[in-house]
Design goal:
The protein has 315 residues and is of the alpha/beta class. It is 42% helix and 22% strand. The protein has two domains: 129 residues, ATPase, nucleotide binding domain (Nucleotidyltransferase, domain 5, 2-Layer Sandwich), CATH 3.30.420; 166 residues, ATPase, nucleotide binding domain (Nucleotidyltransferase, domain 5, 2-Layer Sandwich), CATH 3.30.420. The strands form three sheets. Strands 3-2-1-4-5 form a five-stranded mixed β-sheet, sandwiched between helices. Strands 8-7-6-11-12 form a five-stranded mixed β-sheet, sandwiched between helices. It has a two-stranded antiparallel ribbon with strand order 9-10.
């Protein structure tokens, strides 16, 4: 069995999988954010991970059958990619591996999301495929090549200001929703009436790149003028979906790749999923869209553990 560890911006996660890749046990704890705040400083997040990891390990079960430790050590698989929160998980992983005389496998948070997507989307894509990682800390369009243990990833595009999840959270908090706001904003949007759907927000893109600062400013202005909260919530969802659609249409046409894996917390939104499926799986486009299970769209250690299992098999 493999133990996966992920200490992301807002979730402490552990996951144990067996040799077939099945989940034996997993534990997660959302980091605490004060009401009305739009996020956490890294120092505060690090402190909470330090506090959470021992408590979660106490509930994960015996480690006697563990044959390897896999941990995310950085946000993306790039040399310059760094964020202090991942040092907490890496430190715990190194300590466990050394004390138990086990191999330690290092990967990135982004690769973990892709592996969790592959593990829960119910398919095995082509060797090369497109992926979109859309969350509070990342909005990336990726060209992905599967390797024996992990992925070769090339970033094709990204958000040039706010990430999609930040857009959701900032507007959600302005609407009085708890942070993180994704699930609450989705629920609010469902309460709207037909008259609310006339609210529109811009969805600017430039090539393969997104911009969400303009839509955020427009949404906050609508809130100040007393616009329907449900209508604003749906307009946020629609703006993200339209932006993703524009970029993916271009990428599918220019790359020739038809399989698209969409992962990250924002990808759990069912309205966004359904809109993208309707528009991009149309015969005129011909894409094949795959989504991580909503529970594994959000931050988790399942994908990190899967990469560790693959790494162990090729040792």
């Amino acid at each position: 069995m493999i133990l996966g560890i992920d200490t992301s911006n807002y979730t402490t996660s552990l996951c144990v999988i067996d040799g077939a890749g099945n989940i034996v046990n997993e534990q997660r704890k959302l980091l605490e954010v004060d009401a009305g705040e739009r996020g956490l400083q890294q120092s505060a997040a690090v402190f909470q991970h330090v506090r959470n990891l021992p408590a979660l390990l106490e509930t994960i079960g015996s480690l006697q059958e563990i044959k390897g430790i896999s941990v995310s050590t950085r946000p993306r698989p790039e040399e310059a990619s760094y964020m202090p929160v991942f040092l907490v998980g890496e430190g715990m992983g190194r300590s466990l591996a050394a004390s138990l005389s086990l191999p330690l496998f290092r990967t990135s948070h982004q690769e973990g999301h892709i592996a969790a997507g592959e593990g829960t989307a119910g398919y095995v894509p082509e060797e090369n495929f497109l992926a979109v990682h859309v969350s509070g800390g990342t909005t990336d369009l990726l060209w992905v090549k599967r390797r024996t243990a992990g992925y070769q990833i090339r970033q094709m595009g990204s958000s040039k200001d706010l990430h999609a999840g930040q857009f959701v959270d900032r507007v959600g908090v302005a609407l009085g929703l708890p942070f993180p706001a994704g699930a609450h904003l989705e629920q609010l949007a469902r309460t709207g009436k037909e008259s609310d759907w006339s609210i529109r927000l811009p969805s600017p893109v430039n090539g393969y790149n997104w911009s969400f600062s303009g839509p955020e400013t427009a949404a906050l202005g609508l809130i100040q003028t007393g616009a329907s909260p449900a209508g604003v919530a749906r307009a946020v969802e629609s703006a993200i979906a339209k932006g993703l659609e524009k970029v993916l249409r271009k990428a599918i046409a220019e790359s020739g790749l038809k399989s698209v894996l969409i992962v990250g917390g924002v990808a759990a939104n069912l309205y966004i999923r359904d809109r993208l499926k309707d528009r991009l799986q149309h015969p005129a486009v011909g894409a094949r869209l795959y989504f991580a299970d909503p529970r594994y769209s959000t931050d988790n250690a399942f994908g990190v553990a899967r990469i560790g299992l693959l790494s162990q098999k090729v040792q």
